[in-house]
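To fix ideas, we give here one paired sequence and structure record:
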Amino acid sequence: NICSCKIRTSSGPLCQGTHGKLGFSYRMAPRVQLEKAAWRWVDSVRPEDIHREHIEIAYRICVPPCKRGACRRNCKGNPNCLVGIGEHAWLGEINENSFHNIDDPNSERRDKNTFVGLTNLGATCYVNTFLQVWFHNLELRRTLYLFLTIFPFSDYEPRSICEHLQYLFALLQNSNRRYIDPSGLVKALGLDTGQQQDAQEFSKLFLSLLEDTLSKQKNPNLQNVIQLQFCGQMSYVTVCNQCGRASPLPSRYYELELNIQGHKNLTECVTEFLKEEKLDGDNRYFCESCQSKQNATRRIKLHSLPHVLNLQLMRFIFDRQTGHKKKLNTFISFPEQLDMGPFLEGKGIKCVYELSAVLIHRGVSAYSGHYIAHVRDARTSDWYKFNDEEIEKMEGKKLQLGIEEDIAETVKSQTRKPKCSKGYHCSRNAYMLVYNGSPLSVPGFLQRLVDRDNRKFEEWCLEMADMRKQSVDKGKAKHEEVKELYELLPAEDGQQYEFVPLEWLKKWLDDSTVTKEIDNGNFLCSHGKLHPDKVGEAKRISVKAAELLFDRYGGGPRLDGSTLCEECVGQRCRVLRLKNQLAEDYKEVTNLVKGPPKSDEGYWVGKTSLRSWRQLALEQLDEDEEETKHIDGKTNGEGPEITATKENQDEDEEEMKTFNEDILCRHGGLSILESERRLVTEEVWSKLRVYFPRAPQFTQLQEPCQQCLRLEREGKENEALNRMMASEQKSSLLNLFQEKNRPTLTKWPQETDILYIVPLFFVDEWRKFIRRPTKTTPVSSVGNSLLLCPHGGFMFTHDSMLMGDAQHIALLWPGEWEVISRHFLVDQPISICQISQATPNGSSVEYTTQPELCRDCREGFIFQQQRDMREYAQATVYVRKVIDDKRVSAAPEVNVSGSEAEDEREEPVTKVDGERDPDFSQIEDGAKRQRLSDSTIGAAASPAPMASGGKSGIRRSTRHRKLRGEKALIVSANQTLKELKIQIMHAFSVAPFDQNLSIDGRCLTDDSATLGSLGVIPESVICLKVCTAFILDLILNLNL
């Protein structure tokens, strides 16, 4: 009475299926245990004895469904588990916000009595900080609103920079948005939004551009607004120590650039800015009164101060040691009220400024970081922090920099923050201070633009609110649908059922995705039914629920209880039983093959197959399991054509896939190689045949393939002919094969006036055949047309071949050419002749070729070569660091830019005479020889001098041998010299202004010129001399 399913549970000894026998019901187990339990019955049931109850066990029809709360996630091995597929989001209390991912549009609305932020377009935070500071300058804003180019019309749009700035200020003043997009102004300025510029330089250039534009206006208030707001008067006064003559040089300033290095407070910085400077020694001053250079003093005098005083704290300085800018993280104390009276020339003048803005750079590097601004509202005196889109009001109407000093610090500073007196602030990130010495209305034409933008914003808010409402209504309807259908999903015992994909159910319960039609096509086996291996990816549901789902969403095919595949279950049963029996059969076959077979009763098997038959059997059984699964994204239910295609693909593969395939010839017969096969008994073959029913079968009386035997005889005859041919050709052209006694163009041989030319490729292929005649195809023809132009003319001259064009040709003696002509087919003979002529001044020698030179094609070839040298991309050049024409070792390796080529491992180089000249290298006998370049002629046709013994010169590599102190850089022809200097700076740690570059003794000085125009070609060697700081300072002093 024991149930054959043998499945376990802790609930009791009775099987919970429909078998009516004693046994053990399922206990919920992991997926692997469920898989094993579903096929445990195959040990006692043969494939022909399978019944319906075994099929239902294999498809896990009787596995109990899981209850809610019992599983943390869905049991994929249990087709009846409908827990954890996303139903929890629908069966509890519903939050309407879960039906949409649309934020409340009112969160984008500007709050009452707050300011408007600016969007960061990538790396434009430095622009946003200055725009907020200038916006809070009420006088500048009021005057800028008066700017007009033409009378504004109804569809007016800003075009110029001033018009964009007007519109931006109007939006910052009256927009309903929490933040606005400044891309119109940024685009008009031509700024790169992905690259952070120098903030101080941007401020100078923008105010200069604004002043130049406004100066052309007819309104005098507009013409002088920049000067009235930001411009002051000062003078550089030089006093001669000899005669006392003072020479003032008046000047205007828009900001004071203060050095902060070595100072603690703002007063010290201003004092140093105005302190007296001595001019003596080489820096003496030429006095007009004394008419000679005299010692003198020079200082700056402030005559007037602007309404808005901009103080630039020079935090970003150039480090001469590293060749890069760096940031000074020095604490500087500055007051809320600044009295500039003591620094003016007119004594007794009281000039007190109020701190109105502090611009902050957060970060420790000069090349990265983030810019924010603290600005005081002129109307309420409240302080605000402007951080792009985010705006924060400071508490208590006080400037608070303490938090800002602790943010974005990646290194610990050894300097502790000093204590500040009342009315003072300390910062190590402030780089600009703004000091200032009534409600404002927007002009009508600008207000119309603002109103239009506000209407767009309100329309967007209404549209977003409507979309939120539609999503909520749709979600509520889906909620009712899920509540209705989920209760109908479980299939009761004894009732009809269908299968639907688990992934489809999850997507149906996932409101973020669109529910598509039900697709069961991936679950079909080759018989068009439900594959047993796919039951873990499907769920068994009631027929009533399936009808509702298919009616609403469509799809198919429908898989019910009649689609459980008996053929697939039987095949799996056979395979599993064979896998269990394999170990026992392997031992038995191993013992049986030790004895020789009886006469006329054996079978041929491959030795390789016999050695690995156990592994092949496992692979064959696995393949039998997989053969009913999916192939190339289609179901096997589409017909036998797919299986046939797979078999054809397997037959084309070289790797052995089937037993006995190693003794199968390409014609389908028995292989002629007896060493690769052996005889086994009929008993052994019958056991192997069980595992490999489709393996090729050859009895002991089977004859080898006749076609293979014939081809073997013919192959041996061809090999003999090739050996004879190679021996004859080698004896006739022995010097050509051994590269001995070769003619050259540098020293024409006296014994002949004519030499013949063939491609070097032909000679190389012919030598390969001579060396291995049985493994290489014989050379049958000489393709001289490769060396000719389309008109049949020769492409090279005698001089060009001497200069390097001969690297792809080989020269032949006349006798060798006769042998070549007899043994090979020649499409076009090519020869070069030496013609000697007597003249009154002596004899002259000319060289002619046959066919003659095609001048038009030759000129085109030269032009193309030159253009390629000028228009290269991603080519390699070598930079060699020298001092006084001597090569020195390179600086230690640094992390170079991506444009630098990877350095090869340097080889030890011994210093020798002549090393200073890059055009010469040393050979073993100590004599100087000109270095071979990339255009050096190959060994077979090389014009290089021959050794005394008649042997040709050693073939030299055309690759550049990098010397110690050289670095390879990747450059392009359209790259400027300035860009190359930046690459060199990264490679050698030499600043661009300290670099003195030359090539072939010619200095490269024009930084804006391209490398192609400067004559820098691939594989060039550029010499780098370092211009030391002492020499540079001397040049600067001479210029002064």
Residues 782 and 931 are 33 Å apart (CA to CA). The first strand starts at residue 117 and ends at 118.
